[in-house]
Design a protein that fits this description.
Blueprint: H1 2-17, H2 22-27, H3 35-39, E1 42-45, E2 50-57, E3 60-67, E4 70-71, E5 79-87, E6 90-95, E7 99-102, E8 108-118, E9 123-134
Parallel strand pairs: 4-5
Antiparallel strand pairs: 1-2, 2-3, 3-7, 5-6, 5-8, 8-9
Length: 138
């Protein structure tokens, strides 16, 4: 009876991990490029200075960003910065937090650009681009 319980528990843990966000996957030791992460639709755009983790759900993008030499907070030793978000070359807004949601993206293929800007809205040279395909919910 114990082996069956253990098997069921392990199966439930595996199923739950396929729906966990990427930073949490990394925290618990799963590779972001693993099969479980791919099944959850989690994507990582990575460089040492600027990282983006995003998850597409419906017509929204859930994103987390990491900036090595910049901070969203004025406290600390790092320079303060924001992330300018563009949808199809049109600026959506400046994000002032490391985690955010871009909502109500129209159906179709879109180019997303995220660029780190300083507090004077000047480019820092750190930017990433990626494409998403929003499917109609009908």
């Amino acid at each position: 009876m114990k082996p069956i319980r253990c098997s069921i528990i392990m199966l439930l843990i595996y199923a739950a991990c396929s729906h966990i966000s990427q930073p949490l996957l990394q925290t618990i030791g799963l590779s972001p490029n693993s099969q479980a992460a791919a099944q959850a639709g989690i994507t990582e755009i990575n460089s040492d200075d600027f990282k983006i983790h995003y998850y597409l759900k419906g017509s929204s993008i859930y994103a987390e960003v990491y900036m090595k030499n910049y901070s969203f907070s004025a406290s600390g030793e790092k320079k303060q910065a924001e992330v300018a978000v563009y949808l199809d070359e049109k600026k959506v807004r400046d994000m002032k937090t490391a985690a955010f949601i871009i909502k109500d993206i129209p159906s179709g293929k879109h180019k997303i650009k995220m660029e780190v800007v300083d507090m004077a809205h000047m480019a820092t040279g750190l930017s990433k681009e990626f494409f998403v395909h929003i499917h109609s919910s009908i």
